[in-house]
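HOLO CASE FILE
Compound: 1-deoxynojirimycin
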Amino acid sequence: MSELGRRCLLSMIGASLVVGAGQSGNAAALSAVRKESREPYEDKVGALLARMTLEEKLGQLQHLAWAFDSNPGSGSTTEVERAARAGRVGSVQSIFGAKATNALQRLAVEESRLGIPLLFSLDIIHGFWTTFPIPLAQASSFDPDVPRSDAQVSAAEARSNGVHWTFAPMMDVTHEPRWGRIAEGNGEDPYLTARFAAAKVKGYQGSNLASKATLAACAKHFVAYGGAEGGRDYNTVDVSESRLRNLYLPPFKAALDAGAATVMASFNTISGIPAHGNPHTLTDILKKEWAFGGVVISDWAGVQELIVHGFAEDGADAARLALNAGVDMEMVEGNLLTNGAALLRAGKITQQRIDDAVARVLRLKYSLGLFDDPYVEESTAIPGPTSAARAAARTAASRSMVLLKNDRDVLPLARSVGSVALVGPFADSTDLLGTWAVPAAAERFPAVRILDAVRKAAPAADVRHARGVDPEGEDTDGIEEAVAAAQSCDVTVVVVGEPATMSGEAAARSDLSLPGAQEKLIAAVARTGKPFVVVLVNGRPLTMGDWLDSAPAVLEAWHPGIEGGNAIADVLFGTVTPGGKLPVSFPRAVGQIPIHYNHESTGRPYKADDKFTSKYLDLPPTPQFPFGHGLTYTTFALGAPEADRTDITAAALHAGDSIEVTVPLCNTGSRTGDEVVQLYVHDVAAGIAQPVRRLRGFQRVTLAAGAATTVRFRLGAEDLGFWTNAPKGEFRIEPGRFDLYVGTSSAADSRLNVSIT
Ligand code: NOJ
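Model generated. Tokens follow.
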């Protein structure tokens, strides 16, 4: 540690600033059955149910899709309009706009027999008008305020435009960077994902769903969708009960504890049983163990696909299996609506189950206030991003960036720089929004281009642009022009990455390198010998070829959203100091996948000089960049972590007691910056082999140059216990030794031990 660092640490003794605290676990809360919050509307729901015909009940369980930008009466949505009048639909997706939603709502409220209002839903994954960075990027912020602000802005914009329900947040933990949907989630860690899922749910739902500035959230996809074999979307997942409960379920539990109103089933099988027909996950765990009183919706045609899975004989069988397993609403296909009455007559489904499903839908409509006021005020519909919303998106994007490499402090660039070459296919592109931008928003409110933002940030500089290559395709003709620009400028920024269409649903890749001829462009710029920076805009971890060694600095900007250009310029010129960390490991090569920090130990862990250990002959055992990695423009020193006690009993933990871990942190550099202090736990010997490390606490801290603080974490039952393979799940805290690691990435090596007796 430097002299400055030492002085900084010394000065810190007795520092009074307390920076937050980690989650404290509480095993009692884990096993306690949540009380369903259905009381407020129960009488009304019961009275309405009593007036409904079977067809009207089945109608409430039907979810249909609108033809996006069309208006009622346009002809392209006649089926939905007819269903609304007949009371044969409960909710409609992809309709928005105060006028359009009011018009369709009127058909249901004024023309159907019972006048039950419709729910309107939309996939608002990272923004409605104001597109925030993709969720994987947001996870890099290690700051739950980022997803919270996205959700609050989305909710205000969308609700004022008639939308009640978003199909978000997505919380599928995954170890599969080939899977395109990694962009929609929060990466490879269940704890980080759980914290983010809870924050996003609270951001969408606020404290009152009827408030007209909130949206009902949907925790999706239930469950283990991120385990898709080979990273191919929709693929098989074979998972043990312990992995299901330790890896895939915690974010859902956290989202429901935060109040998530709905859950969506996933497309995959879970150990042979499709998620849409899986009573263990949908009913035993979700509805019984967790006492979830909300709506379970199928994914798009997920009920119908039970036939394709080879699980159901036909549509009627699919409807029976899905409803009995716990699905309440069917998205787009009408298997339940068509076959429900016959299934009931045949005794294959029960009236009680139908009524339960309908009650869940009605309860949601009551909680949204739709029976009191089904319409929205057309004159106050938010027409586009406000300046406050843009500012929030800009902050979110810059907080989400990860400085992967910065040799010789190439970054930040001086504002007084004489000339900058901006090259690459994304330098002057609006393709920065990422997957799942709402189509109308992408069209009307495109992303700020990096070229424009850099010109604004350094008005005196001579900024030259050359595209160089396309995002895809092998044409290298433009490279010469890019090289000439690089040669003529003081510094070059090469902006490369993936188009938005390369991640998201049904967008798996087998090759994770930069597509097309982009690596050739970087190599050509490197050959000029002039300083340069690579900015990556992408939706998943990429593998980096030899170009990584040649690039002095690499900034992972992900798909940064509407304010992407400005946020990138903020970080390039040091207006904002980058402080994000990777929420997912970056492999060196596709052949290493799955590679993630939270793996179990083999009996023969890697040893360089021992052939018979777990490794590849042709690659180091480590990822290119580990989970939790990220640099900044200043330097930090972490002191030795301490625990307030070195042993605790399992009984005390179960009763809610905890261990406090503290660690001193100093900014030893010369500018204000952020560090994310991370706490990892390893149960050294357990009844089920435990991950070598599990993240159980993080704090993103901003410190001025020379400032010091103490970061505090609390470790409770949830942090030290684990779920076993018992068929119905068993949460255990086992006595023994635990290693705790505190550091600034998952490669942290500052260790202390505690014991449970
Ligand atoms: C399919 C996707 O899997 C899901 O995430 C989405 O919410 C639905 N389609 C509805 O659009």
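CASE NOTES: The pocket of 1-deoxynojirimycin is lined by residues 123, 167, 220, 299-300, 505 (CB under 6 Å). The longest helix spans residues 351-367.
CLOSED: yes
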